[in-house]
Amino acid sequence: MAEETTQERNQPASARREREFRERGDRGLSHELITVVVLGTSALVVGLAPTLSGGARSFFIGTLSNLDGPPLEGLARGLSVGTAALLPVFALALAAAAAGHAVQGGFVFAPRAIEPDWNRLRPWPRLKQLLFSRRALAELLKALLKAAVIAGVVTLCLRRDLPAIVALARESPGGLAWYLSDAAVRLFGLAALGLSGIAAADLVFNRWDLSKRMQMTRQEARDDYKEQEGDPVVRSRRRQRYRALTANRILREVPRADVVVTNPTHLAVALRYQRTRENAPRLTAKGQDALAERIRRLARRHGVPVLENRPLARSLFRKVKVGQPIRPEFFRAVAEIYAALYRRRGEVAP
Fold first, then answer.
1. Calpha distance 272→185 (Å, rounded)
2. Are 4 and 217 in contact (CB under 8 A)?
3. Domains located in the chain, CATH noted
4. Which of helix, strand or coil describes residue 116?
5. Rounded-to-integer distance, Cα 344 and Cα 341, Å
6. pLDDT 10s per residue in the chain (350 long)?
7. Which of 261, 283, 286, 263 has its CA nearest to residue 272?
8. Where does the chain show beta strands of DSSP type E?
9. What is the DSSP string of 76-107?
């Protein structure tokens, strides 16, 4: 047991294990990518669409113009006046978030993701996961990079707009609204541009980390295979049942066949042609090695002709399933077989 617990996870994930991860909602998504898409879409749409940019300014004008009197009442009136102007922007941001999910694989209903996991309440494993895992290190590095990018964007905007900010004290609410809407668009756009590299790296890391976590040990791979394929005893019984069904079919179909085509020893296929009901002969039984020998003996016992045609026997055995009519590519070769049968019987070919 100790040897199994120390095995490395180097076996590829099975389809069953991948499905279990999807059911838990663990798909390697990057929330940073969704944030970048929302910020960039909002900045781009508000900046390029006159109606939406006017809505953003209406929001700021409505908020700033109603700040006279009691602070809370003025703020409430301002928000009620201006929020309606930004509803289209909020709707587009929501659509952008949905698009961010769709780009990463779409939405998946994962009820197991909200089920309580009591293992998370165990302090030491949880603390070890939060502090000493590669994901914890990646999250720390990502947080530092995000803080640096945002600080750089804010610093850049402040340096550029410092004279305008000083002059805002003398501006009317309309002028202040113009500046705030333009500043918001510029800030969101630069933040999205600066965070795009972090989002791309985060997506690549999350997908790589997911693939590593989905890998299995050799013992887990064996157990998974047994669970999917069933117990060896059950598989053996299934094979025995299949052989019994095949043998019963051979006993039923070979005596009614028109001819058995052989390899001559390794393969045997039985053909039957019902002229009034079918357009082409049908392969009614086939077998290899011991089963082929059984078909030959059964055919001779019931007076069914056994003809040797190695290329035809190999092709029919490989390309035609039991119970199916032969393919058009075999019509000429099979017609020659039936013509030989008719000559042997002294009959005229139809």
1. 78
2. yes
3. 9-226 (no CATH), 250-345 (3.40.1690.10)
4. coil
5. 5
6. 344 444 677 788 877 787 777 777 777 788 888 888 888 887 777 666 555 555 555 555 555 555 555 555 555 655 665 566 667 777 777 888 887 777 776 666 555 555 555 555 565 555 555 566 777 788 888 889 989 988 988 888 888 877 776 666 666 655 666 676 677 778 888 888 888 888 888 888 888 888 888 888 888 877 777 766 655 666 677 777 777 777 778 888 889 899 999 987 889 999 998 888 888 899 999 988 888 998 999 999 999 999 999 999 999 999 998 889 999 999 999 998 888 888 877 655 55
7. 283
8. 259-262, 267-272, 282-288, 306-308
9. HHHHHHHHGGGHHHHHHHHHHHHHHHHHTT--
Phi, psi of 244 (to 5 degrees): -65, -40
Q: Take residue 293 and report the two structure tokens written for it.
A: 């020998």
For residue 93, which of 183, 157, 188 has the smallest C-alpha distance? 188
Distance CA 227, CA 217 (A): 15
Please count the other Cβ atoms lying within 10 Å of the Cβ belonging to residue 73.
Answer: 12
- β-bridge mates for residue 288, sequence order: 267
Query: In the numeric block, which tokens belong to residue 127?
Result: 């603390």
Long-range contacts of 81-88 (CB under 8 A, 24+ apart): 82/58, 83/59, 85/54, 85/55, 85/56, 85/58, 85/59, 86/55, 86/56, 86/59, 88/51, 88/52, 88/55
Q: Is the pTM of this model over 0.85?
A: no
